[in-house]
Amino acid sequence: MSVVKIDHVYKDYLLGDQKVLALRDINLTFDPGVFLAIAGPSGSGKTTLLNLIGCIDTPTSGKIYINDQDVSGKTPDQLADLRSRTIGFVFQTFNLFPVLTAAENVEYPLLQRRDVSGAERKKRGAYFLDIVGLSKYAGHRPNQLSGGQRQRVAIARALAIHPSIVLADEPTANLDHKTGEEILNLMKQINQSFGTTFIFSTHDKRVISKADRLVRVEDGEVSELGVRIDSHWSLVPQRRPASSSASC
What we know:
Layout: E1 4-15, E2 18-30, E3 35-39, H1 46-53, E4 61-66, E5 69-70, H2 76-86, E6 87-90, H3 102-107, H4 118-131, H5 147-159, E7 165-169, H6 177-194, E8 197-202, H7 205-210, E9 213-218, E10 221-229, E11 232-237, E12 246-247
Parallel strand pairs: 2-12, 3-8, 3-9, 6-7, 7-8
Antiparallel strand pairs: 1-2, 1-4, 4-5, 9-10, 10-11
Helix pairs in contact: 4-5, 5-6
């Protein structure tokens, strides 16, 4: 079973009267439990690819499978339901609600889940704040927390839905070096403890150094795949026929 499969995916946008091809014939398969970085320069297509995996956007053509389920033809409501149960998000700018406490921010994604009671919601909020080391800050609002603490709240929020995948878009970009290292180590620990798949969009070498799989994107195409062996990368160029698929 794959956690993500991307099958001949193209994505284009209209910019005025001009069509811009953001992704071209992407074929990838991600195994459960990977700690994977999608890397590339600005404008390479890495964030577009992350948004497609997160069902925030839909491909122009091709298919995307999440946990072996084809999501390409689903309605916006169906995709929202899938995200609420399967995919956690960690953003560069934290995206916390300023009027809510840390605990309330963590619980927020569960409010629309009819299968999660109020008691269970509070239990999960407390549990995951403890996992990220912020139990004593549960009643603090975001403006009372440091950048690193806000990102820890965002990680706890992503985990509260019990996701099989956590997507992180440049999660260290607004953090200093030491705090960024601490956040990456925390994510790695969660990955190893819970078996949660982490997929990053990044150009940060610190993130890449922690990953065990690498997808490098250039000009809307996968240019290279990497597998970490001990402390070194085994890199394979991906200029290959469109009919083949790469696995991570």
